């Protein structure tokens, strides 16, 4: 249970030699079955981190390992990417084939999975994201949230240990966002898949077990969402949002209503406020 | 400059097997200086409605009046009339095409026939409204960040000097900083007296900013009123697949628990209401 | 106009013809075209027409659908017909008025060439209407793969076709959106002479290209992260198998070709 799936040790990464490094001396480890939110505004280095974690980028300094394999070891590249599957932001730009079935098969074909094994794995992956009825459809007939679930299925079919989602809900409407988050959250809970959830939406981060805040290429905060979101002033200074309830909690304390720092959601807040009555 | 929509319907591909009712019998009025929020889930007809406001789409039946004149009426100067309504599309940064930000902003007013000093003034005025550093004007729009590009696109629409601004999900896909900056610009424009129609999925923004809210559901106008009126009908909104702002959700929860607080739209208002209710509760106890 | 082009459009029903191996269908389509050109006399086209009719019926294709594919070609057809009619020399003069001379040979040639053109398009439509683009690409890749030995990029070509097919609807939608956005800024795509109109396309084409490149970059990244590394060590989901039905189809085409040669 405590096995470390993804690990970054003193990792720095620069896109070019002159420019400021996008990531500076970052050390993080992600344990099996963890679901971690990564926050930070554009340019904070969170997307770079994601691409380092599955070997799309190789660190300029330091070392990244996926299931014990060093991403700098070129003989392991495909093993690494199969184990740390990645889903990107734009639902239109990551599906390859014009039929769902063929798209989910893409990764399997690339990794040389025998043809006879494919149908069962494709169907299982689609079932897990609730998209099996759409197996013969074209992606352009699907909603944004549905397309992202197909992208997740394409990764799941490769039986990964970890899923890295790089702002995969940023371009979706609230319904699509919920669809995709719930799907991933369930995969984490039921299948024990390690999840790195990069997002701008604080409500989503509040539902993860761990939250990391990136700022200027470094890890600024790392803890439970309750711990992170209680540091309202610091988050604001980094131009990040706080979940609406955390903001309200702050205002209430100023008015002498003693609600604790860590309330994240409406239900929790209602309970805390009602407790203050007696 | 009021916009009046009278019994407007829009049918896609009428008379073909793919015929679809996009909008059905919509009537509403947006008065001067209002900020109308248009909400509804994807496919409810919001974007279709928005494209009727400046004549990109024409109603199958019914009328759209800007300043009391039908924008689709033959003979009238439709082009000029339609340009009184500026429309910022979703992901508007993808419409930029010129070599410099300046030239891109100038595209609209140039099409209106402006030249020379007048054009220059328009471009600079519009550019000033979106709070970008001065040197950006001479940069290529493709060097900018996503949020900055979107603000350039907004300046391009503002440069046409519209009396009404229609914004189709202006903050979609931006990071929190980008969202903040853009919402602030919209707020400032509203305070300057520009009439705004805002399509949004973010109910917290709608609660905070809108003066009136129109709810679309499957092409029908399901509700129309102040944010307070609309958000008090939470169950109906939920049934249409829409959320209510978290503040309103909390008020509902608190009332269920026996603490009497009225529906509040902003955090500040709610904090006051809770503090007051709790004191009241203590006195009664 | 665009919606009239049936060439390249798939008619999604299940039938004997739809289920045929795409490789066999591609080869048979070529054989069919060769057969059409082998036939000389007008009677030779009877078996061709019969073949097309039977094939369309078996594929559950409405004949109308097949005919629609010819519509965009009508100008070329008229042009071919008229050109051959007037400029083919011959002995048997049918009509002679002013400088126009129509000979029997001319008339025959005109009919022959127009008919060939029609059959060519119908034959190709028959293939694309009954074979989904994905399967067609797959068949093409495997047919061409022996050529890989001499350096022909069969897999890469097929991958490009796959991606193009996938992105055509996306880019069409995007073009529509950008066009509307520029129209909202007062752009005029409809009036003016050719030069003005071409210039008016710049605000549409620049963003469209920029976006296509951005998408290409994103897609390349996504494909790499899904372990794509060319055709090496790649397995395939779709199994292509030549069945009894394919032999039946091949026989039918052979009979048609034989008949056109004899008649």
Q: Which structural class best describes the helix and strand composition of chain A?
A: alpha/beta
| Strand and helix order of chain A | EEEHEEHEHHHEHEHEEHHHH
The helix fraction of chain A, in percent, is 25-40%
Radius of gyration of chain B: 21 Å
Biggest sheet of chain B: strands side by side, in what order?
6-7-8-3-9-10
Strand arrangement within the widest β-sheet of chain A reads: 6-7-8-3-9-10
Extract low-pLDDT stretches of chain A: none
Number of helices of chain A: 11
CATH homology-level superfamily of the largest domain in chain B:
P-loop containing nucleotide triphosphate hydrolases
Tell me which protein chains meet in the greatest interface and how many residues each side has: A-B, 35 and 39 residues
- Helix/strand order of chain B: EEEHEEHEHHHEHEHEEHHHH
- Largest β sheet strand count, sense and barrel closure of chain A: 6 strands, mixed
Beta strand % of chain A: 15-25%
Query: Which percent range fits the helix content of chain B?
Result: 25-40%
How would you describe what is shown here?
The complex is a heterotrimer of chains A (278), B (285) and C (263). Chain A has helices at 46-53, 77-83, 100-110, 118-128, 144-156, 174-191, 202-206, 225-229, 232-237, 244-254, 266-275; strands at residues 4-13, 23-31, 35-39, 61-66, 69-70, 84-87, 162-166, 194-198, 210-215, 218-223. With 278 residues, chain A is an alpha/beta fold. Chain A has a single domain, classed as Rossmann fold (3-Layer(aba) Sandwich), CATH 3.40.50.300. In chain A, the strands form two sheets. Chain A has a six-stranded mixed beta sheet with strand order 6-7-8-3-9-10, sandwiched between helices. Chain A has a four-stranded antiparallel beta sheet with strand order 2-1-4-5, covered by helices on one side. In chain A, helix 3 packs across helix 4 (118-128) and helix 5 (144-156) packs parallel to helix 6 (174-191). Chain B is an alpha/beta fold. Chain B contains eleven helices and ten strands. The longest helix of chain B has 18 residues, at 267-284. The model of chain B has no long low-confidence stretch (mean pLDDT 90). By secondary structure, chain C is mostly helical. Chain C has two domains: 2-131 and 241-262, no CATH class; 155-225, no CATH class. Chain C has helices at 16-19, 22-38, 45-58, 63-68, 74-87, 104-130, 133-144, 154-184, 194-200, 202-225, 244-262, and strands at residues 93-97, 100-103. Chains in contact: A-B, A-C, B-C. Chain A binds chain B through residues 41-43, 89, 143, 170-171, 173-176, 200, 202, 239-241, 244-245, 247-248, 251-252, 254-257, 266-267, 269-270, 273-274, 276-278, and chain B through 41-42, 145-147, 172-178, 180, 201, 204, 241, 243, 245-247, 249-250, 253-254, 256-259, 267-268, 270-272, 274-275, 278, 281-282, 285.
């Amino acid at each position: 249970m405590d096995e470390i799936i993804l690990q970054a040790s003193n990792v720095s990464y620069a896109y070019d030699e002159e420019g400021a490094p996008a990531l500076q001396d970052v050390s993080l480890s992600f344990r099996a079955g963890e679901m971690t939110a990564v926050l930070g505004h554009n340019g904070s280095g969170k997307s770079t981190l994601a691409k380092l974690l599955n070997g799309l980028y190789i660190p300029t300094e330091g070392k990244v390992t996926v299931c014990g394999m060093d991403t700098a070891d070129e003989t392991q590249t495909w093993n690494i990417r199969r184990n740390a599957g990645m889903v990107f932001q734009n639902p239109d730009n990551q599906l390859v084939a014009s039929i769902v079935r063929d798209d989910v098969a893409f990764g399997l074909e690339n990794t040389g999975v025998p043809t006879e094994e494919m149908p069962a794995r494709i169907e299982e992956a689609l079932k897990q994201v609730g998209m099996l009825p759409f197996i013969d459809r074209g992606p352009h007939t699907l909603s944004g949230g549905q397309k992202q679930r197909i992208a997740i299925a394409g990764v799941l079919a490769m039986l990964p240990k970890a899923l890295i989602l790089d702002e995969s809900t940023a371009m979706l409407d609230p319904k699509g966002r919920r669809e995709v988050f719930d799907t991933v959250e369930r995969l984490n809970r039921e299948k024990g898949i390690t999840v790195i959830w990069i997002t701008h939406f604080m409500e989503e981060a509040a539902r993860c077990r761990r939250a990391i805040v990136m700022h200027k290429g470094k890890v600024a905060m790392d803890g439970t969402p309750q711990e992170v979101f209680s540091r309202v002033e610091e988050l604001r200074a980094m131009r990040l949002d706080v979940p609406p309830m955390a903001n309200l909690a702050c205002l209430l304390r100023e008015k002498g209503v003693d609600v604790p720092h860590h309330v994240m959601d409406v239900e929790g807040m209602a309970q805390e406020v009602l407790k203050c009555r007696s | 400059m009021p916009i009046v929509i009278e019994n407007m319907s829009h049918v896609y591909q009428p008379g073909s097997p793919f015929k679809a009712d996009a909008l059905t019998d919509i009537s509403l009025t947006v008065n001067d200086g209002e900020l109308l929020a248009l909400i509804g889930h994807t496919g409810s007809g919001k974007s279709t409605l928005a494209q009727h406001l400046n004549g990109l789409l024409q109603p199958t039946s019914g009328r759209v009046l800007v300043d009391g004149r039908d924008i689709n009426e033959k003979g009238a100067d439709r082009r000029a009339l339609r340009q009184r309504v500026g429309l910022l599309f979703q992901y508007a940064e993808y419409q930029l095409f010129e070599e410099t930000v300046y030239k891109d902003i100038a595209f609209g007013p140039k099409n209106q026939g402006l030249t020379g000093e007048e054009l220059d003034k328009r471009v600079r005025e519009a550019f000033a409204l979106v709070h970008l550093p001065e040197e950006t004007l001479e940069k290529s729009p493709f060097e900018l960040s996503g949020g900055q590009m979107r603000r350039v696109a907004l300046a391009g629409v503002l440069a046409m000097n519209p009396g009404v601004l229609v914004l189709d999900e202006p903050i979609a896909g931006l990071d929190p900083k980008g969202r903040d900056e853009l919402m602030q610009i919209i707020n400032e424009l509203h305070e300057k007296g520009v009439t705004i129609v805002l399509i949004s999925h973010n109910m917290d923004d709608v609660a905070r900013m809108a003066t009136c809210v129109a709810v679309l559901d499957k092409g029908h106008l399901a509700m129309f009123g102040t944010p307070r009126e609309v958000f008090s009908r939470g169950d109906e909104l939920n049934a249409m697949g829409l959320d209510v702002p978290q503040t309103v959700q909390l008020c509902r929860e608190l009332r269920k628990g026996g603490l009497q607080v009225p529906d509040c739209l902003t955090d500040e208002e709610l904090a006051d209401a809770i503090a007051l209710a709790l004191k009241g509760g203590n006195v009664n106890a | 106009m665009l919606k009239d082009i049936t060439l390249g459009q798939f008619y999604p029903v299940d039938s004997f013809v739809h289920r045929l191996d795409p490789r066999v269908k591609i080869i048979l389509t070529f054989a069919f075209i060769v057969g059409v050109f082998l036939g000389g006399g007008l009677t030779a086209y009877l078996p061709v027409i019969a073949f097309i009719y039977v094939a369309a019926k078996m594929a559950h294709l409405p004949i109308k659908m097949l005919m629609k594919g010819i519509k965009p070609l009508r100008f070329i057809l008229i042009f071919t017909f008229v050109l051959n009619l007037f400029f083919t020399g011959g002995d048997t003069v049918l009509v002679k008025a002013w400088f126009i001379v129509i000979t029997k040979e001319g008339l025959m040639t005109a009919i022959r060439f127009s008919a060939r053109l029609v059959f060519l398009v119908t034959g190709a439509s028959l293939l694309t209407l009954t074979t989904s683009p994905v399967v067609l690409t797959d068949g093409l890749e495997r047919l061409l793969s022996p050529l890989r030995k001499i350096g022909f990029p069969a897999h890469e070509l097929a991958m490009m076709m796959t991606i193009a097919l996938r992105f055509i609807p996306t880019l069409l939608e995007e073009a529509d959106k950008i066009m509307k956005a520029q129209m909202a800024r007062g752009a005029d795509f409809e009036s003016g002479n050719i030069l003005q109109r071409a210039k008016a396309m710049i605000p549409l084409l620049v963003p469209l290209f920029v976006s296509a490149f951005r998408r290409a970059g994103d897609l390349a990244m996504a494909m790499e992260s899904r372990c794509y590394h060319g055709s090496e060590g790649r397995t395939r989901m779709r199994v292509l198998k030549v069945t009894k039905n394919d032999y039946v189809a091949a026989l039918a085409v052979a009979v048609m070709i034989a008949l056109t040669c004899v008649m």
